[in-house]
Design goal:
- The protein has about 425 residues and is mainly beta.
- Helix content is about 5%, strand content about 60%.
- It is built from 2 helices and 20 strands.
- It has an 18-stranded antiparallel β-barrel.
- A hairpin with a 2-residue loop joins β18 and β19 (about 385-395).
- The longest helix is centred in the N-terminal third of the chain and has 17 residues, at about 1-20.
- The protein is globular.
Length: about 425
């Protein structure tokens, strides 16, 4: 394997040094942000001085994207990322003197086209089912077949690989996601298969040996003039073998979601959405809780669903992993001027299945209510390309969030973000 890697590197060096400079086009891009925010009472507890969930932080992120275009059918993409907290010590660059060692490789892949086929090979990003089952960077390949108005992407993800003397184990995903467009309506049927002969040493599947999980679903998007609607449905099936046993469990889980945006004269809209992802039925021997081992990401509200600052979520919320959750949203976005946008949103959420809660007196109860959250987000364009966001959020916590603490308190968040893309 090492000899092969050396040969590949040597081949790329030969290409790099033999391509005429005039034939190589260099394209740069990137993203930058700096933000200040505070999260308070995210564990439903207002214990001053002893609450690790209280965060007040300034941080910054920079990304640099470099694309080397060798010709119309071949390019190499590399993306770097740098993160720091203001005042961070050690290897960070947020302290006095800076000079931190904090450069990360986010993406590195080749993108080439052969007739009606486009392929990306290496570490790159991909999304499936609006993020309900995947939206992340990964090592693998994406091959898209194009014919007329139809595109059929096939995705392979090497999710986990352990190749040591003691263990040789891996987990792979394979997905397909064609799209069909007609008359303002887009249909996107999709499927994903997760498989492994032994997945027990990967944290995300540590309870299982054999894994055979499949997802089958459909996305629908329709533009109806002043209104646009979307809907998604996913069924999760298959079976898993419990680690250290010969016991298998069938998987029977599902997710349903939908949303609507209604234009109100151009300067405002009314929007809403709902999501339901099944939880584990305690009376069922099958796995009924919708889950993805790793890679799913669907952001929603500011406090319960990561939102703008994505540092943490309120206790017992599944964050961006749609599992054992139901929520609904209603909101409006107002644009008083070309440079100003104001979004007001309300979110109601509860768990699909109860969890056990123990109060300070030792009493056990079953709870599922996460609460009702109010969000305000104001976005202003300071100069062309540079945006300032002001965010406020408050969660009127339910019993599944406060855990019936002696010091029950509602979570809240306040923050601001300065950002640009280029």
């Amino acid at each position: 394997m090492k000899k092969f890697a050396v040969l590949v590197l040597a081949a790329w060096l030969v290409v790099a040094f033999t391509v005429p400079a005039s034939a190589l086009e260099n394209v740069f891009g990137g993203y930058w942000r700096t933000r200040f925010y505070t999260n308070q009472n995210f564990d439903g507890n207002d214990a001053d001085g002893a609450n690790a969930d209280d965060i007040t932080r300034l941080d910054t992120r920079g990304r640099i994207y470099y694309t080397a275009i060798l010709n119309d059918n071949l390019k190499v993409v590399t993306k770097f990322e740098m993160d720091a907290k203001f005042g961070e010590q050690g290897t960070g660059y947020g302290d006095i003197g800076a000079d931190g060692v904090k450069l990360e490789v986010k993406n590195s892949y080749v993108d080439f086209t052969l007739g009606g086929l486009n392929a990306k090979v290496g570490v790159h990003g991909g999304a499936l089912a609006r993020g309900f089952i995947f939206d992340d960077d990964f090592s693998g390949a994406t091959v898209a077949f194009k014919s007329g108005g139809v595109t059929i992407p096939v995705i392979w993800v090497k999710a986990f690989d352990e190749d040591s003397a003691a263990n040789k184990r891996d987990v792979d995903y394979v997905a397909v996601s064609p799209s069909f467009n007609a008359g303002g309506v887009t249909l996107n049927p999709f499927g994903m298969y997760v498989f492994s002969d032994n997945a027990s040493t990967w944290g995300s599947t540590s309870a299982y040996n054999d894994v055979d999980i499949y997802y089958a679903g459909l996305n629908l998007d329709a533009n109806l003039g002043a209104a646009s609607v979307w809907a998604s449905g996913i069924y999760q099936g298959g079976e898993v073998e419990l680690d250290g046993t010969n016991t298998t469990q069938d998987i029977k889980a599902w997710l349903a979601a939908g949303g609507l945006t209604l234009g109100l004269g151009g300067a405002a809209d009314l929007h809403g959405q709902f999501v339901y992802a099944t939880g584990q039925d305690p009376k069922d021997k099958d796995v009924t809780q919708f889950f993805v081992p790793k890679g799913a990401s669907y952001y929603w509200s500011e406090i319960m669903g990561y939102g703008t600052f994505d540092a943490q979520v309120s206790i017992n919320s599944p964050a961006d992993q749609m599992s054992n959750i139901m929520f609904a949203n209603l909101g409006t976005t107002i644009k008083p001027t070309a440079d100003l946008k104001i979004s007001l949103d309300a979110w109601w959420a509860q768990l699909a299945e109860d969890i056990l809660v123990i109060d300070p007196q030792g009493k056990v109860s079953e709870e599922k209510d996460l609460g009702i959250e109010a969000n305000v987000k104001i976005t202003y364009t300071l100069v062309q390309g540079l945006n300032l966001d002001l965010v406020g959020a408050y969660l009127f916590a339910g019993d599944a969030t406060t855990m019936k603490n002696n010091d029950e308190a509602d979570p809240f968040e306040i923050g601001t973000r300065l950002s640009l893309s280029f």
